[in-house]
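Recap from last week: sequence in, structure out.
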Amino acid sequence: MEVEYYRRAAAATVGRTVSLVDAPDGWFIKGGADAAALSLALEGRTVAGVRRIGKLLMMDFGGPDKQTGAMLGLRFGMTGRLVVDGHAVIEKLEYSSAREVPEWRRFELDFADGGTLAVIDPRRLGGVELDPDDTRLGPDAFGLTADQLASALEASRTALKARLLDQRRVAGLGNLLVDEILWRIGLDPAREAGSLSGAEQDELAEAIRSTVAELAGRGGSHTGDLHLARVRGGSCPRDGELLNRRAIGGRTTYSCPKHQR
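Predicted structure tokens:
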């Protein structure tokens, strides 16, 4: 969800020409490229468009003196933040820091007009990649249809939460969002994904779209109704029951044993 904010902010760079690429952290560059390859591919090119699929932000580049374009993919993990023209799009993330330590500045584009676009990531959980393969991503959560969700869940014995977190099945859902969605509609995150009835699938698809839209309007996935209760000993905001705290799909999960089935 935060990446949608980043997409909107990055749109301010459309029409700008890259004068310098600064990529000091080789670990942060994915897909086999290096800093020299990024500079060669992007310097002198103009940002032609910005788009997003799930948690992947994509910047398309072109230029009058270039025969072919280039595409840059940016991933932010749980701790990466985008800074455009010196303005942090999101001040603080749930698992990150609001500080801007110089060593955390993993990647930056300088533009000919003096502006910048930078990624700050204290834990290096994100990355940048030239021409990433976005075909491996599932349908985007913002517009997920019931048929698309049914296809993602079909016959799966995987835990429902783990299936929803799989970006190849549904793109754009993170840990906090999935807990919020399943809490809202009363589904146990440990339930087998393929066990949902057609009616439950329809309700879940609607809940995904509406919750993503609502929390995007509030300011991010950390603004959910369940969020403040996601602590050890927390109680369900709906019925007061002590919340279950489990690891599902490798992620810390909170759910209500009373109304989530």
